[in-house]
């Protein structure tokens, strides 16, 4: 029996949270992942950047503590925490000593349920965000990502903009805008809390109940409706970023929701094609055989809707065309089924093996459970998942590639020094 | 009131054995997951290089993935991929390190792969040429980052003699001119049991882990002792300053590097506490919520002068730098930020940190050092890092030393370190 199948997950509904606890005997700390379903997908139409402004402002004071007091209370515990906003969720990732878990969750709940969202703190977040947008405008990876999204997604699609958002929206946002988003999308929608580490299940559930049990009443907002998007032809834009030596390249397509039954096959297809610099076809040829790039890898986003399914690489400007051509040539082999059966076996072995290796860390375990809980994959997901990965056939890989990764219809963005020719 | 941070359990103390060939093996049991990790540390890095061959240790690290007679190129990658392994390598100023975290039943294979490439790497001319462009690409990726550009310049200015001034990845010219024979000589000189040690942590009895490692590495020949590094940095007698003006960055940066002692210095734990007092323990990214009670965060970020700030004292074999870096707002004032940084460092040198604040710093330091040890990979890395630099012989010993730091130790460390004559100040000025 695989170890992932032996994981014990204890679940309970607490307020608007679905709580999952996995005890790991012998550890001193607990990882707490709190995913609020208030990412880009939940942003009001035409207001990209609001989700991140709200999420960052949650950590800047509450009705009980001012910003300095809340920060000092967190540091008093020696807990570490950060807030990241992505396509479908704002995730507060924390780690505390097991004995401090109740105190840490009380602070987290205070921030999430009773934030002050004070105008003075919004100004700090606004200043930081505008600085980050400015920084991204000279960062080749940031520019390539921005351009790729603009090519791949239509106007008003939630993923057309990066989570940092639009500068105009960030500059215009008011504290009232933030409060409205908080009430509607965070209090109204709730999310998932996963605890993994050196606690027993009852302790973890009791700490979650004590912290989040008194969830304020709020209406559940309707799910955002997003029309299906498509890339109808090869779209390319080369952006010059001054004073750089390397070009960052993003080549990609629109993916599929994590809840789609074909997503497991998509993950295997991604691994066969380009997910890993060493184990996948594109990396092996582009980096290992031709020495064209230091890094090349692909990701298929596990999210709501059509997330990015992209290959990223860093290449000297004179090698950009060869690297792109080579990557597309490897893709053609995948979608025609012209690859050894062992490439599929290798991809499956790697994906299954990674599940066992992820058990070494509470963050690894919490991450696996979070995905299952967030996308409603079922209480027995971790028990079934290795077999699902193993069941994907070569024909399914080729079919997934033909359906989602057409070699003549993709969006291609480059950012860096001027390209030759 | 927060509870005490429990010291590491006895199981954190590794057992150790020196093999007949000189290789030292450290083994520790970690039973919470069915995995094992092996880390091989070689005492070779940027400090073992001379001008003209900068980046050689890092280049060689890449070549160790290009095959041996027993495991031709691609073998290692595919084997480890099949196991779902977490694996990589890195080179820093002091060491080159290779690691694999694998399902525990695969540990013997990982050990055999590492033992094999310790003495049998091919380093062929053809592969050196293919990898050269990859390493140039790695360097060019770093050059796209203003923080790297300023840091590299600051390091070069701060050290007049010691090879720490050369950094790790090497100059682009040196990378382009690196020869296969030079790389192979470097390999034979430094990759030997007598110049390395192995850390194994995993889901087995520590004795069994140690026996597995001894069986894999024991048959190797010892090799010649590696030459010692003899380039002590002479004392610095006044502040050094530099400015980097480039269009490649949007945000101004201020970096300050104070000369700081080696990891073996008795003040090393107090210097780590000092860094925590100044900027917390989890880095200065905007997304981080921890560390906001720190001195520099309040002075620079809360006040609106900067958007991010970080401070660090790394563990190194030879005296290195205590780093402070602030990222300014787009219209930020370098001089004002530098002034605030130096006001805070002066204050740390003059005044004791009040009890309540010191308790908070101590808590962050101890808890922050406990978290990585809750992963098998993190525990092995932490132990290996302490051993590499001579900071401590176990995680428990280092924890004890951190726990015994007093506010007066921190003030004393600040007074000895934060002096005008031993600092180097760098500004990154974005050009439009």
Q: Which pair of protein chains has the largest interface, and what are the residue counts?
A: A-B, 88 and 84 residues
Order of helices and strands of chain A: HEEEHHEEHHHHHEHEEHHEEHHHHHE
SS summary, helix count of chain B: 15
In angstroms, what is the radius of gyration of chain B? 22 Å
Which percent bin holds the helix content of chain A? 40-55%
CATH topology of the largest domain in chain A: Cytochrome Bc1 Complex, Chain A, domain 1
Low-confidence stretches of chain A: none
Mean pLDDT of chain B: 94
Tell me what the CATH architecture of the largest domain in chain A is.
2-Layer Sandwich
Give the proportion of residues in helices of chain B: 40-55%
Structural class of chain A: alpha+beta
What tags apply to this protein structure?
A: 421 residues, alpha+beta, Cytochrome Bc1 Complex, Chain A, domain 1, six-stranded mixed beta sheet, five-stranded mixed beta sheet, globular, B: 432 residues, 2 domains, 15 helices, 11 strands, 41% helix
